[in-house]
């Protein structure tokens, strides 16, 4: 990565840090902090976006690979999804996946995209341990995409709800109380369009 690319990443982080720190409901324009985010530094801006950003604007324009190493789109237009940015060393990610495994009780989660910072193959054991099936495993395509993801999401897990038009409708950093996670789970399992 060149110095210019690194500088672009640092500048991009400054503009997205406020967005990634709290849970925003873009469809209604209100926002609320979740339990885990309450321990993080305060948001730089108190102004929520007026319109929902596209996934490329909010989630990022980095490349991701699936388990077979193929470049795949982060967002599949026409399909709502929950992207969970995770890491193998994240204890809150493990807690979230444990709860999701219990909630699913064997039902597949076809609208969950587990984006593991260390790569898609690292997510296999995480899902298998909690008996979660049907989720799409993805990871950064290369080291520069991993750096972009790490800077864009300073904490894991981060959950991003994307509607069928490819627009981000809600983001949630950290792990909430289980009652809040049930709204996100409803999208993952296919029972709801948005959390």
Across the major sheet, the strand order is: 2-1-9-8-5-6-7-3-4
CATH topology: Glutaredoxin
Helix-strand makeup class: alpha+beta
Portion of residues in helices? 25-40%
Strand content: 15-25%
Q: What is the CA–CA distance across the termini?
A: 37 Å
- Low-pLDDT parts are 1-52
Could you characterize the architecture of this molecule?
By secondary structure, this protein is an alpha+beta fold. The chain has a single domain, classed as Glutaredoxin (3-Layer(aba) Sandwich), CATH 3.40.30.10. 35% of the residues lie in helices and 19% in strands. It has 6 helices and 9 strands, in the order H-E-E-H-E-E-E-H-E-H-E-H-E-E-H. It has a 9-stranded mixed beta sheet with strand order 2-1-9-8-5-6-7-3-4, sandwiched between helices. Strand 8 and strand 9 form a beta hairpin. The longest helix is centred in the N-terminal third of the chain and has 19 residues, at 3-21. The chain is globular and about 35 Å long. Mean pLDDT is 74; it is low at 1-52.
Put the structure in a nutshell:
The chain has 195 residues and is of the alpha+beta class.
Q: Which helices and strands, and how do they pair?
A:
Blueprint: H1 3-21, E1 23-25, E2 30-32, H2 55-58, E3 64-65, E4 71-72, E5 81-86, H3 91-104, E6 112-116, H4 120-129, E7 136-140, H5 143-152, E8 158-162, E9 168-173, H6 178-189
Parallel strand pairs: 5-6, 6-7
Antiparallel strand pairs: 1-2, 1-9, 3-4, 3-7, 5-8, 8-9
């Amino acid at each position: 990565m060149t110095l210019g690319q690194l500088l672009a990443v640092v500048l991009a982080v400054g503009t997205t840090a406020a967005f990634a720190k709290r849970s925003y409901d873009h469809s209604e324009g209100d926002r609320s902090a979740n339990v885990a985010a309450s321990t993080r530094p305060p948001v730089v801006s108190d102004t929520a976006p007026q319109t929902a950003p596209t996934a490329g604007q909010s989630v990022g324009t980095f490349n991701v690979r699936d388990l077979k190493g193929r470049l795949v789109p982060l967002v599949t237009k026409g399909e709502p999804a929950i992207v969970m940015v995770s890491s193998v060393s994240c204890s809150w990610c493990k807690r979230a996946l444990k709860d999701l495994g219990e909630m699913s009780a064997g039902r597949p989660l076809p609208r969950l995209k587990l984006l593991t910072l260390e790569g898609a193959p690292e997510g296999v054991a995480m899902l298998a341990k909690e008996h979660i099936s049907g989720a799409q495993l993805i990871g950064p395509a290369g080291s520069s995409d991993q750096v972009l993801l790490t800077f864009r999401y300073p904490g894991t897990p981060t959950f991003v709800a994307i509607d069928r038009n490819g627009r981000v409708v809600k983001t949630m950093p950290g792990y909430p109380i289980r009652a809040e996670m049930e709204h996100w789970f409803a999208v993952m399992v296919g029972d709801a369009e948005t959390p």
